[in-house]
Specification:
The complex is a heterotrimer of chains A (276), B (348) and C (291). Chain A is of the alpha/beta class and 276 residues long. In chain A, 24% of the residues lie in helices and 30% in strands. Chain A has a 7-stranded mixed beta sheet, sandwiched between helices. In chain A, strands 4-3-6-1-2-5 form a 6-stranded antiparallel beta sheet. In chain A, strands 13-14 form a two-stranded antiparallel ribbon. The chains are: A alpha/beta (276), B alpha/beta (348), C alpha/beta (291).
């Protein structure tokens, strides 16, 4: 057994979120691993399709829910397309958890604002469920989520669940022109909806994930609302291979996304050189 | 207090015979069929080259092979079984290595042990005793002194050989070195001679007589990520990666799956380099280091700023192979001197 | 080489070009130089140590050089073959480059600073029998015409040695040579004719050529590259010089060049108007190998 040898996992369930995005529910084959596996919200893993290679995704399920893990991915390259070709019951590999995590204990007794765009909801979904499963430790929970169009929204079932909860304030939006005939929610880019929602910054944390352009326009809105950059979290991606700080690939200046990240504060981000 | 013993030339020859006869693999600088010196497995003492000729490649390949299997898999319908690879290796002795090369091995230890332990690297490390030879200096491309080492550096060695007492002196540096002396006590003798450097400290071989200030260089690098110097300095660089291939401390790797047919295959780890365009390219096509200036900057940063920030010392050991191997005349000692000068100016 | 310096200074000074790609003195011998300022033209040198082929810097893959503006490039006759190759294969346009030819009497195999004398032992393999000491594809030609380079049979001897071997012996020999290859791809990166934006070896879907530096992968890579260079390789020797493992890559390329000459009567020259055999079909081309 060496560091690079993955655990075997079996695909227990497949959910097609959108035309090109899929969620897999994975169970560890080794019962010892299944009962002891633990992680913190924000950490990622290396998911293997034997023969095609490994992909890096956050663990999209919450650590409060034991027994299996989930990942959500878009098919863009060799390994993700091979992953899409797998069926329920097929075996994959998993290495992890790697990386740092959202400091949930620091966020207790505060408001939490989750802002996500498109598939960016995947890393956030983990920490949303983690928060909701420990609901009484946090104050107001706001979720602001949008995508280009209705068909690009992921986790449809969960959005309904979150929207139905009285202890969550959910804002759903699509880009102008992306609405369907029966769309009942917001229309507008995510940063504009954040502005509209105007979450209070006092004793509040923000978790922001999405396409770079969404983050670029959301951070100033949060700044105007009074969120200090130390209380805004986001996740970064970079090309990875080992996931554990050895292959030398994922650094942004002095910071290794696989070790010092993938979770960063906006303050840390501002200090990074422009090579991501 | 670490022991120093003496050993005659005949003693060394017998030692090699003992090791080989006893099943220990001996790796030493030796002449390849094409006439070049390289580190290779030797079976006899007379195959070893004891001069200051620089082996063309470093010791890296003996601890991180250019390609090594991480595990194999076999698939039947929906099930997969994994065949692990060994993490324990047969005993080896590296004999007569250059100090810059053993220092390179030690430098990579820090990365391979950073929070997660790389069993393949350490398996080979534990099986190997590193015996270096104090160096007299190779040529004008050496710059070990500039990076804080020296031609007689003991960093990374278990045992260092110095000339003395009519043959060699063997100075133990680590417990493993001490054990080696005890295990082969019959070949070694007592000595009152002191191990002395071979290279003339004032001769300038090794890149000057004093180290460049690593803290000042690191500070300059961390503050000058966007300096226009990076644009001009890498114009001639081909991004060919020859420098990384011959470097004792470059250790970046790729992980690939190699199917053999539809049902089985091997996942391998292969040498890779930040100098190639594809090193950091995302599946989307986005490349954070889109041109050679960015990629060359990464190499310098990793050696002199990023690794030191995490592990306290520079990653470069000053062997000079990058400068010798580069087809385009990129000269790391020249660049480091230039940065040291800029850093000194900045302080003033 | 004052004539070259003056020319470079003039071309930069009057804005004809944004950069002169030539040779300069470096800490370890001559090396490529990028002169953008007319006042710096004195950095330029030319002597028997100038073995590098600067035509590679014209390749469209060198994105970060494009911002320097129009290039003038110093070429020897052999380097001009590379310029011709890039023109022939439409990678650059003739008006986008100013070719500064230098009359050459041969170069050393290495660019080392000692500048030893040019002898049969020290001369680069390609120089023997050189027929292009005066570059023909050039906008300007400078320098005095030196005598012909010393003749070396080194390469011919090495090729003959392999020709005398049986197929099995050749296989074993190349397996042994290629064992040292670590797939750094320096051979590709220094080659002016390896200008593919996406090299076949980098393709992953499917993985035509295994990227691992093992026997199988290395053979696949080197044979593929040699085949892709057949009828295109300009024999500048850069691949062999750049290889950090000292693999005699030039022999593979030379062998295929011989085959192309025997089969198609074609040799790579510095005339971009003559199309390469890869790029054209003649009705009387040999076809007996097509089953």
């Amino acid at each position: 057994m060496n560091l690079y040898q993955p655990h075997l996992v079996r695909i227990e369930a497949i959910t097609d979120e959108t035309a090109d995005t899929r969620t897999l529910k994975l169970g560890f084959l080794d019962p010892d691993v299944a009962s002891t596996f633990d992680f913190r919200a924000g950490q990622f893993g290396e998911y293997s399709v034997f023969g095609a290679g490994e992909c890096t995704f956050c663990i999209a399920s919450s650590p409060t829910r034991k027994g299996s893990i989930e990942c959500t991915f878009k098919s863009v390259g060799k390994a993700t397309n091979a992953m899409r070709g797998l069926n329920e019951g097929d075996t994959m590999g998993f290495r992890g958890p790697y990386g740092n995590h959202f400091p949930l204990d620091r966020m207790e007794d505060s408001d939490v604002v989750f802002i996500a765009g498109g598939i960016g909801l995947a890393p956030v979904r983990c920490v949303i469920w983690n928060t909701l499963d420990l609901r009484d430790r946090f104050r107001d929970v706001t979720i602001i989520y949008g995508a280009r169009s209705v068909s690009d929204l992921v986790y449809a079932r969960e959005l309904e669940e979150w929207g139905a909860r009285p202890d969550v304030r959910l804002w759903r939006t699509v880009d102008p022109g992306g609405e369907s005939a029966d769309w009942k929610h917001e229309i507008g880019f995510v940063p504009a909806i954040v502005e509209k929602a105007a979450p209070k910054a006092d004793r509040a944390y923000a978790v922001v994930c999405g396409p770079p352009i969404m983050i670029k326009y959301t951070l100033p809105v949060l700044e105007r609302l009074g969120f200090p950059p130390e209380r805004i979290f986001t996740t970064l991606e970079n090309r990875m291979k080992c996931g554990c700080g050895k292959c030398g690939r994922c650094n942004i200046g002095p910071v290794y996304v696989c070790k010092d990240g993938p979770v960063f504060t906006a303050a840390e981000l501002a200090g990074l050189p422009g090579e991501y | 207090m670490m022991t120093t013993k003496s050993i005659s030339r005949d003693g060394l020859a017998s030692l090699v015979a003992d090791l080989v006869g006893g099943g220990t693999e001996v790796i030493a600088p030796s002449r390849a069929p094409d006439g070049e010196v390289e580190y290779r497995r030797v079976l006899r003492f007379d195959e070893i080259v004891w001069s200051d000729e620089m082996p063309r490649s470093s010791l890296k390949e003996f601890f991180l092979p250019p390609s090594e299997p991480l595990f194999s898999w076999r698939q039947t319908r929906s099930d997969v079984t994994i065949e692990p690879v060994p993490t324990r290796f047969g005993p080896r002795v590296v004999l007569g290595a250059r100090p810059c090369d053993v220092a390179g091995v030690a430098a990579v230890d820090a990365v391979m042990g950073w929070d997660y332990r790389d069993e393949l690297w350490f398996g080979r490390r534990e099986a190997t005793t590193l015996v270096s030879s104090a160096c007299g200096g190779v040529d004008g491309s050496c710059f070990c002194r500039m990076v804080g080492l020296s031609p007689e550096s003991e960093k990374g060695a278990d045992l260092v050989l110095f000339p003395g007492d009519g043959g060699h002196l063997a100075k133990a540096v680590t417990e493993k070195g001490e054990s080696f002396l005890s295990a082969h006590a019959a070949r070694f003798g007592e000595t009152t001679d002191e191990a002395k450097p071979v290279a003339d400290a004032n001769a300038g071989l090794g890149g000057g007589v004093a180290p460049a200030d690593p803290a000042a260089i690191r500070a300059w690098l961390s503050e000058h990520f966007e300096d226009p110097m990076w644009e001009s300095i890498a114009l001639r660089c081909h991004g060919c990666g020859a420098c990384a291939a011959v470097c004792p401390s470059c250790h970046c790797f790729d992980i690939v799956d190699e199917p053999e047919g539809l049902l089985e295959g091997t996942r391998r780890r292969n040498w890779d380099t930040c100098q190639t365009a594809r090193f950091t390219v995302h599946a989307s096509g986005h490349n954070p280091r889109a041109d050679q200036s960015a990629r060359f900057r990464q190499r310098v940063m990793h050696k002199f700023s990023i690794y030191p920030a995490k592990f306290g010392e520079v990653l470069c050991t000053g062997c000079g192979r990058c400068a010798r191997a580069c087809p385009a005349g990129m000269d790391l000692p020249e660049i480091v001197s230039k940065i040291a000068a800029l850093a000194a100016e900045a302080v003033r | 080489m004052q004539e070259l310096r003056d020319l470079a200074s003039r071309l930069l000074g009057d804005g004809t070009v944004g950069v002169v790609v030539g040779y300069e003195e470096g800490p370890r011998g001559v090396r490529p130089a990028f002169v953008t300022d007319a006042a710096d033209a004195d950095r330029l040198v030319f002597d028997r140590r100038c073995v590098q082929n600067l035509a590679v810097y014209l390749s469209p893959r060198r994105g970060h050089l494009a911002r320097l503006g129009k290039k003038a490039v110093v070429v020897k006759g052999c380097d001009a073959r590379a310029v011709a190759g890039l023109l022939r294969e439409k990678q650059i346009a003739r008006q986008d480059v100013v070719v500064l030819g230098v009359r050459c009497g041969g170069v050393l195999r290495h660019e080392s600073g000692n500048g030893e004398a040019l002898t049969a032992q020290t001369v680069a393999d390609r120089c023997s029998g050189c027929d292009c000491r005066e570059p023909r594809l050039a906008d300007h030609v400078v320098g005095d015409l030196p005598p012909s380079p010393p003749v070396s049979t080194r390469r011919a001897d090495r090729m003959e040695e392999i020709e005398r071997m049986s197929p099995q012996e050749r296989w074993d020999r190349w397996q042994r040579e290629l064992q040292r290859c670590v797939r750094c791809h320096a051979c590709r990166e220094v080659c002016p004719m390896c200008f593919c934006e996406r090299c076949v070896a980098d393709k992953t879907v499917p993985s035509w050529i295994e990227s691992s530096p093992h026997g199988r992968g290395n053979l696949a890579w080197h044979l593929t590259r040699a085949l892709h260079q057949a009828g295109r390789c300009c024999d500048c020797g850069e691949c062999e010089r750049a290889c950090p493992a000292n693999i005699p890559l030039g022999l593979l390329n030379r062998k295929l060049a011989q085959v192309v000459e025997e089969r198609f009567g074609y040799r790579v020259t510095d005339d971009p108007a003559v199309p390469a055999p890869i790029g054209r079909y003649e009705p009387n081309d040999a076809q007996e190998f097509i089953l």
